[in-house]
């Protein structure tokens, strides 16, 4: 999996398995899924509660570069949004992406998210810190 726009990886298969196991163990207030095509993992997605008190959550997804541009991330985002609002009872779901990741920005826009601003030096990466674009969608949108 190409990790151009995420703050982790690339990971070995054992690293990925450990990450999945850890995510599943701490899944309270979160819905995690593996995205498969023809029984092969092509990506992952999650929606989680960031603040139970405020009914706010976070959405994330990552797709194998061989599957970019085929609409899979948009389907995953829509599915997880529905679950976040219905099953987790969230009223607001946020998502971020790297400013240069125009494909992810488009996924969020197609999924009904609104751009809310720039988070400066938001994520630590292997080469330093990077900014993020903040998007959000409300249950009432």
Automatic annotation (TrEMBL):
Keyword terms, alphabetized: Transferase
GO CC annotation: cytoplasm
GO molecular function: protein N-terminal-serine acetyltransferase activity; protein-N-terminal-alanine acetyltransferase activity
Keyword Transferase: yes
SUPFAM superfamilies tied to this protein: Acyl-CoA N-acyltransferases (Nat)
Entries under InterPro entries matching the protein: Acyl_CoA_acyltransferase (IPR016181), GNAT_dom (IPR000182), Ribosomal_N-acetyltransferase (IPR051908)
Protein name: N-acetyltransferase
